[in-house]
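Exercise 3.2. Students should predict the tertiary structure of the chain below and write it as structure tokens, then compare their answer with the key that follows.

Predict this chain's 3D structure.
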Amino acid sequence: MNIFYSVNPPLGTVLFEFSRNEDAPALSDFEKDVGAHGRIIVNNVGDNEFMASDALRAIAGHLWNELGDTPTDSDGVDGKLDDEFYHFPKGTAVYDVWAWFEVEFNLSISADLMHQ
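Answer key:
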């Protein structure tokens, strides 16, 4: 499964398209219409129906891993970003980034992302 996504300022709205076919017209249009974007390839999808909620969950997990590589001034939710993270500038409280994940992806940090 190919998922193209974009995190758009100022609020960090996530746009995405997904398809089993790498050359799908929707993905090509998405690449043209959205400047900066990322791509995730999800393997082992099988014949089960892959839905938008599955794509969002995959994007959330991918971005969560990227956040783990973003330097902060202290460990845990009490720190501040030492570098930009998508639409969040340097100095943003990690708590605010975590809150964005929970709202934007309709999930729980502790239940859905911390132990993946």
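Discussion points: The chain has four helices and three strands. Strands lie at 2-8, 13-19, 38-41.
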